[in-house]
Design goal:
It holds the Pfam family HSCB_C. The chain is mainly α and 193 residues long. The protein is 64% helix and 3% strand. The chain has 2 domains: 4-93, DnaJ domain (Helix Hairpins, Orthogonal Bundle), CATH 1.10.287; 116-192, Monooxygenase. It has helices at residues 34-37, 48-62, 72-93, 95-105, 116-131, 135-161, 165-192, and strands spanning 4-6, 13-15. Bound molecules: zinc ion.
């Protein structure tokens, strides 16, 4: 059964959608999760091109620039939709945010507690990075970290497919630290270049 809504503008009933199917006026934002809003399954294993296309199609409809002469309420709904679409797109694009969003939907708390072991590892890694004088060494370490990150992402993917949500949180923390170290190494490399 499709949910019906009453259009705020023409007051006719139409199926739940971004625009009224009768008068074509933009409807208020109904807060959904990032996945359903951008029309993709709730999955960690997403193809960026898929949700990117949906995002661009959606932005073409809701972009506030298109509502310059519209009713103030419709203009307001456009800006709400547009910023929600942007936020949803950012969540899906970032693997860490995407994973957190899925855990949240499944009611798994993933408040990142400061993990002392990871913190020490990260500090040591930074010291090693800073002490590296040759670009070669730095490049080698960067490659190694990138390969570790891709292994970790694979592990997270498997845990999601097995619905072992509770184990993912720890991997996510590790992935967060590693991603940070990778961007630090990349910055150092740029400085040396
Ligand atoms: Zn209408």
């Amino acid at each position: 059964m499709t949910t019906k809504i009453q259009c705020w503008s023409c007051l006719k009933e139409s199926p739940q959608a971004i625009k009224c199917s009768v008068c074509g006026v933009l409807q208020p934002l109904k807060r959904e999760n990032a996945f359903s809003y951008l029309g993709v399954p709730i999955s960690f294993d997403l193809v960026e091109q898929e949700f990117e296309k949906n995002f661009l199609d959606l932005q073409a409809i809701v972009h506030p620039d298109r509502y310059g002469g519209a009713h103030p309420l419709e203009k307001y709904y456009a800006s709400e939709h547009s910023s929600f679409a942007n936020a949803a797109y950012q969540i899906l694009k970032n693997p860490i945010e995407r994973a957190r969003a899925i855990l949240e939907i499944h009611g798994v708390s993933c408040d990142s507690k400061l993990n002392p072991e990871l913190l020490i590892q990260a500090m040591e890694r930074r010291e090693t990075l800073e002490s590296m004088i040759s670009t070669e060494e730095l490049r080698g370490m960067l490659e190694e970290m990138k390969s570790n990150a891709s292994d970790l992402k694979q592990k997270i993917k498997i845990k999601f497919s097995q619905h072992q949500f509770n184990e993912i949180s720890g991997y996510l923390d590790e992935f967060t630290y590693l991603s940070k170290a990778i961007s630090e190494a990349e910055q150092l490399l740029e400085k040396k270049a």
